[in-house]
Amino acid sequence: MRGLYILGAWRLLVKSGLPGWHALIPWFREYQLSRCASREPDGRVYFLISMAITALRAADLCFRWNKDNETLIAFTPLILGILISVMLMHFIYNIRIFRGFIEVYQVSKAWLILCIIDELRFVPMLIWGFSEKYQPRWKVEDLRAEMERLATHGSAAVMDKGLTINLKDRHVSEFFRKKYLLKDIHMAIPQGHMVLLLGGSGAGKTTFLNAVNGYEKANAEVTLNGKNMYTEYKKMQYEVGFVPQQEMVRVKDTVESTLMDTAELRLSVDIPEKERKKRVHEVMDIFGLTPVADNMVEKLSSGQKKRLSISMEILSNPSLLILDEPDSGLDGVMARKLFVQLREIADSGKIVIVITHTPDRVIDLFDDVIVLAKDSSRTGRLAFYGSIEQARTFFGREKMEDIVKSVNQKEEGGDGLADEFVLKYAEVQHG
Q: Do 125 and 174 sit in the same domain of this protein?
């Protein structure tokens, strides 16, 4: 049966555009199969788990052979316990990889029963490998090459007025190799636009925003009104307002004192105190905080705290305002009122970028939408940037939440169409 399993693996690798002889190499064979199943990150873990199981089994045998060594015998139960735990992880990751095969070959989930039983796993592998009826949705190297080919076509032209993002990649080191979090994101956002940022869990929305505002620099060029955010970060840091999901305010202070302290930090030292106080009162009026100016922050409602957080960022009159789920914890009426205020900020000539998990209730207030999606290698890529109506046409879906569902992986409850839309958008952009 082992020989039949290897033979099936050989054929699957060939069908996916990888060298068949890799099926002859233990451990590496499973890693390559994970790439065929669009589960490369899981394959790396599976590879390490398989090595650990071999090492633990060898250690267990060594301890059993040395029956006269009481110290070694004492470790045997511990080794067995660790081995059982690791084998359970091995089983779980095996399921995840073969679920990927079911998606790539578009077959019934019932096949998974055969895939998870060691003695029967060779059956689906031989059938998928040798039958012409079963063909993968894409070849591993062809898909990667196509992604890279389309990524090399141009970039967004830098605007004198507006936000230009040319992000080649953002990566970290993992298992002694680069793990790409984001790749090939290019766009130009004009002044006065309010932009919705969409993407499923792990698509890289927060990483993208951190790269844009310079908090976590990427291999990128980001310019705001013609000025480089990275090379002129000290000058530009107050040109960008960022409101995180969690309020970052002192609760044991009044609203006015909080804003006055913020004004001292963010406004020029050359501005007289009278002018700073005037600016604070202007912002409180804009966000309806004047009636609670003397209230302690801890006594504010959730909506008032959100408006206070935004007010703190608006004080320095930034050209770009970024908000991560500003409507979190707010009811529909309060959320709507908050987004109307954000729309007014955009209409004053600012750029406003917002993440929200309930976009459809306020979608009429947005100009554009950015859609990020994880491709088959789990890298965040640009699946779309354009107007709301263009997005509906491009994805063939009316609701923004359905657009997110279309690019989410199937194991996350989505349609698993991220690669298709990433490629489609790249082809549209580059002709």
A: no
Helix (H) or strand (E) holding 183: strand 177-189
DSSP 8-class letter at 221: E
Are 113 and 206 in a shared domain? no
Of the given ranges (42-56, 61-75, 81-95), which has the lowest mean pLDDT? 61-75
**Mean pLDDT computed over 32-59:** 82
- Number of structural domains (the chain) is 2
The mean pLDDT of 3-23, rounded to a whole number, is 88
Could you tell me if 283 and 425 lie in one domain? yes
- 131 and 47 part of one domain: yes
Query: Given 137, 172, 206, which residue is the final one in a domain?
Result: 137
Asked if 291 and 310 touch (Cβ cutoff 8 Å), the reply is: no
Q: How far apart are CA 321 and CA 339, in angstroms?
A: 13
**Structural domain boundaries, residue 23:** 2-137
CA gap 208, 224 in Å, rounded: 15
**∠ Cα 272 233 207 (to 5°):** 120
CA distance 257 to 280: 10
Give me the long-range contacts of 35-39 (CB less than 8 A, separation at least 24).
35/140, 36/12, 36/101, 36/104, 36/136, 36/140, 37/97, 37/98, 37/99, 37/100, 37/101, 37/103, 37/104, 38/100, 38/103, 38/104, 38/376, 38/377, 39/96, 39/97, 39/99, 39/100
Residues 6+ apart with CB under 8 A from 358: 327, 335
CB atoms within 10 A of CB 46: 23
Please indicate, yes or no, whether residues 23 and 172 belong to a single structural domain of this protein: no
Question: In this structure, are 306 and 348 located in the same domain?
Answer: yes
121 and 156: one domain? Answer: no
Highest mean pLDDT among 94-108, 318-332, 364-378: 364-378
Distance CA 352, CA 336 (A): 16
CA–CA gap between residue 13 and residue 139 (Å, rounded)? 9
> Closest by alpha carbon to 101, among 145, 135, 144, 50?
135
Instruction: Give the number of C-alpha atoms closer than 13 A to the C-alpha of residue 284, restricted to the C-beta side.
Output: 22
The predicted model scores a pTM of: 0.73
Neighbours of 77 (CB within 10 A): 10
Is residue 88 located within the same domain as residue 169? no
Q: For residues 15 and 32, is the Cβ–Cβ distance under 8 A? A: no
